[in-house]
C-alpha cells in the first residue's frame, strides 16, 4: 500500500467551456508528466459557441460536437475529464429565475466534486475571467465560494490563473484582465515540448478554431514566455480587530 507521502498529488482544474483549458494547458501537460493526477472539470456544454469559421448552429448538436472535441483534448493532455452539462452562458438569457437556480446547482455540484476528488490543489479563474466572459468569472467565483465555505484538509490550495499586466498593451486591457506582477505569487516554467503538446490538444477543438488559427495563436503566445502565472488564494490565520 502506498503511504500518504508516496501517493500522487491531485490537481483539479476547473473552467467554464470546452477549450478554456488552453489557459493552463502547458502546465497540465507538465504536471501529468510529473505524475500528478490531473482532473479537468468543464462546467458548460458550449452550445452557444458559434463563430465565423464554420456553419455550426447553436444548440444541442453543437454541444454534442464539443463534448467529443473535449474528450479528444483531454486525451492528448493526459487528464481525467469531468464534463458537466450546464448551459453555455448559464441560462443568463432566462433572467433571474433561469440563471440563479442553474448557478446554484453548479456551486453545489462543484462542492461534491471537490469532496470526492480531495485535490491537493485547485486551479480556476480569478475575477478577470481572462476574457471577462460571465461564465469564466462565474465559474471562478463559484469555485472560490465552495473553497471558502468549508474546512478542507489544510494542504488544499486554491490558485487563480493570471496574466501579468506588464505583458498587456493598453491600460484598458490591463484593467480588464491584467494582474499586477506582485500578486502573481506562483510562477511555473514549462518546456516548449510541453507547449507543443498543449497546442496539439487545442487542435481537437475544430468547431472553435481551424488548424491555421491554432498555429497562429501558438506563435503569437510565444511572446508571453514559457511560464504560467498564478495567484494563490491566501488569507491570514490571525484575526484582527481593526482595518488599519
Ligand atoms: Zn470560455
What average pLDDT do the residues reach? 94
Summarize the amount of helix as a percent range.
Answer: 25-40%
CATH class call: Alpha Beta
What would you say the CATH architecture is? Answer: 3-Layer(aba) Sandwich
User: CATH H-level name... which superfamily?
Assistant: LmbE-like
Bound molecules: zinc ion
Structural class: alpha/beta
Distance between the termini: 51 Å
Query: What is the helix/strand order?
Result: EHEHEHEHEHEEHHE
The value of Rg in angstroms is 18 Å
Q: Helix count?
A: 7
Query: Which runs of at least 5 residues are low in confidence (pLDDT < 50)?
Result: none
- Tally the structural domains: 1
Task: Note the main sheet.
Answer: 8 strands, mixed
Overall geometry comes to globular
Q: What portion of the residues fall into strands of 2 or more residues? A: 15-25%
The CATH topology: Rossmann fold
Number of strands: 8
Could you describe the 3D structure shown?
The relative contact order is 0.16. The model has no long low-confidence stretch (mean pLDDT 94). By secondary structure, the protein is an alpha/beta fold. It is globular and about 60 Å long. It has helices at 25-33, 60-77, 95-117, 134-149, 171-177, 192-202, 211-221, and strands spanning 10-15, 37-44, 80-86, 121-125, 157-164, 178-179, 186-189, 227-232. Strands 1, 2, 3, 4, 5, 6, 7 and 8 form an eight-stranded mixed beta sheet that branches. Residues 16-17, 20, 133, 136 line the site of zinc ion (ZN).
Amino acid at each position: 500500500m502506498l503511504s500518504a507521502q508516496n501517493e500522487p498529488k491531485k490537481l483539479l482544474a476547473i473552467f467554464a467551456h470546452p477549450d478554456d483549458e488552453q489557459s493552463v494547458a502547458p502546465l497540465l501537460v507538465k504536471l501529468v508528466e510529473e505524475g500528478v493526477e490531473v482532473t479537468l472539470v468543464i462546467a458548460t456544454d458550449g452550445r452557444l459557441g458559434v463563430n465565423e469559421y464554420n456553419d455550426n448552429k447553436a444548440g444541442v448538436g453543437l454541444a454534442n460536437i464539443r463534448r467529443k472535441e473535449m474528450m479528444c483534448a483531454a486525451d492528448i493532455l493526459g487528464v481525467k475529464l469531468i464534463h458537466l452539462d450546464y448551459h453555455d452562458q448559464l441560462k443568463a438569457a432566462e433572467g433571474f429565475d433561469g440563471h440563479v437556480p442553474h448557478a446554484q446547482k453548479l456551486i453545489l455540484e462543484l462542492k461534491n466534486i471537490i469532496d470526492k476528488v480531495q485535490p491537493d490543489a485547485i486551479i480556476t479563474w480569478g475575477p478577470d475571467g481572462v476574457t471577462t466572459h460571465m461564465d469564466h468569472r462565474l465559474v471562478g467565483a463559484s469555485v472560490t465560494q465552495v473553497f471558502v465555505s468549508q474546512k478542507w484538509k489544510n494542504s488544499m490550495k486554491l490558485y487563480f490563473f493570471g496574466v501579468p499586466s506588464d505583458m498587456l498593451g493598453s491600460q484598458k486591457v490591463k484593467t480588464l484582465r491584467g494582474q499586477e506582477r506582485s500578486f502573481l505569487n506562483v510562477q511555473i516554467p514549462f518546456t516548449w515540448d510541453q507547449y507543443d503538446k498543449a497546442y496539439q490538444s487545442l487542435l481537437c477543438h475544430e468547431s472553435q478554431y481551424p488548424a491555421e488559427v491554432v498555429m497562429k495563436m501558438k506563435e503569437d503566445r510565444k511572446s508571453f514566455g514559457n511560464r504560467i502565472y498564478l495567484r494563490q488564494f491566501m488569507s491570514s490565520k490571525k484575526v484582527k480587530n481593526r482595518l488599519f
